[in-house]
Amino acid sequence: MEPEDIDRITRILAPRLHMLAALARTEHVTRAAEILGMPQPTLSRAIARLQEETGLTLVERTGRGVRLTRTGRLLLPHVERALADLARGVGELTDADHGRVTLTFLPTLGVEVVPALLRGFRRTHPDVRFTLIQEAWAPSLRRLAEGGADLALTSPLPTDPRLVCTVLHTQALRLVVPEHHRLARTDREVALSEVAGEEFVLLKPGRGVRHLTDRLTDRAALTPEVAFEADDIATARGLVGAGLGVSVLPARPRGPLPTTAELPLADHDAVRPIGVIHPAAGSGGGYTPPAVTTFLEHVRRHGPRLIPDLTG
């Protein structure tokens, strides 16, 4: 059979799958019609038309009842799987306890924050399934805006009107210098201009902290001399500790590394808001599955407590 013939028969079968399944279960046209909530003549005509249009004999009469032919029995497992898959899909869209959530998040939040949020949520919603995507700030926001994810945990927060943001925690940004740096013992706020001409360790473009650093250096009319570009905050901190440059990074909750010093910045906009983001109502598909809404509420409730303790 040619592919176009298979496609034609599939399109004819699709809206009648429940009819075949009901007939297989009851082996009786009237009882099947009652289950389906339709008049018995309507069901009989639909099955007759189905067989005529497909050229497949799927049902045969047996006295006062009906049964599937060998062709119908061979098709039945595929019909049942298709209906089960459709039911699962509908469940993911409509059932808060059996849905699916696609979450994109910063790699730094994947070490402790995301596992802690999932652990707490799964205690009360064990059947919700998750698709987890770790990625940098820029691709995470792009994925969310294009409908490839339900929620994002990231920083900084976007100004895109298609996205709604909830701040969960705000970290101070610090000038991080090696322990023997000339400013390491300073107990005052420092300006970025005080390290003009020094080598910087920055995160790679597309990372949220790099976006914030670029904004701060632009405000300070400073063009950093970039010595190294790191993939993540921990690596950048380690490179500073090795004496390979200075950096602007979120304050480490457990205190500076022994090989570094962290200095408050005079620019009071030197902060890193971390938040949960979701598409605005009416954007994308215009519908938020209940499981996504329930998890979003969980993140908003517990994120402000977890993130300060588990980031950095």
Automatic annotation (TrEMBL):
<dbReference type="Pfam" id="PF03466">
    <property type="entry name" value="LysR_substrate"/>
</dbReference>
<dbReference type="Pfam" id="PF00126">
    <property type="entry name" value="HTH_1"/>
</dbReference>
<dbReference type="InterPro" id="IPR011991">
    <property type="entry name" value="ArsR-like_HTH"/>
</dbReference>
<comment type="similarity">
    <text>Belongs to the LysR transcriptional regulatory family.</text>
</comment>
<dbReference type="InterPro" id="IPR000847">
    <property type="entry name" value="LysR_HTH_N"/>
</dbReference>
<keyword id="KW-0804">Transcription</keyword>
<dbReference type="InterPro" id="IPR036390">
    <property type="entry name" value="WH_DNA-bd_sf"/>
</dbReference>
<keyword id="KW-0805">Transcription regulation</keyword>
<protein>
    <submittedName>
        <fullName>LysR family transcriptional regulator</fullName>
    </submittedName>
</protein>
<feature type="domain" description="HTH lysR-type">
    <location>
        <begin position="12"/>
        <end position="69"/>
    </location>
</feature>
<keyword id="KW-0238">DNA-binding</keyword>
<dbReference type="InterPro" id="IPR005119">
    <property type="entry name" value="LysR_subst-bd"/>
</dbReference>
<dbReference type="InterPro" id="IPR036388">
    <property type="entry name" value="WH-like_DNA-bd_sf"/>
</dbReference>
